[in-house]
Amino acid sequence: MNYKYFSIFVTLVFLFVTSFSCDQAKDDAYYYYKLGNDAFSKGDYNKAIEYFQKVVSIDVKRLGPEHHGIAIYYNDIGSAYDRKGDYDKAIEYYQKVLEIDLKQLGPKHPGIAIAYNNLGSANESKGYYGRAIEYYQKALKIDIEKLGPEHPDVAIDYNNMGSANEGKGDYDKAIEYYQAALQIDREKLGPQHHGVATAYNNLGSAYASKGDYTRAKDYYQKALQIDVEQLGPKHPDVAIDYNNLGAAYYNEGDYNTAKKYYQKAVEISLNHFGEAHPDTMLFKENLNSVK
Question: CA angle at residue 4 from 82 to 13, to 5 degrees?
Answer without folding.
Answer: 65
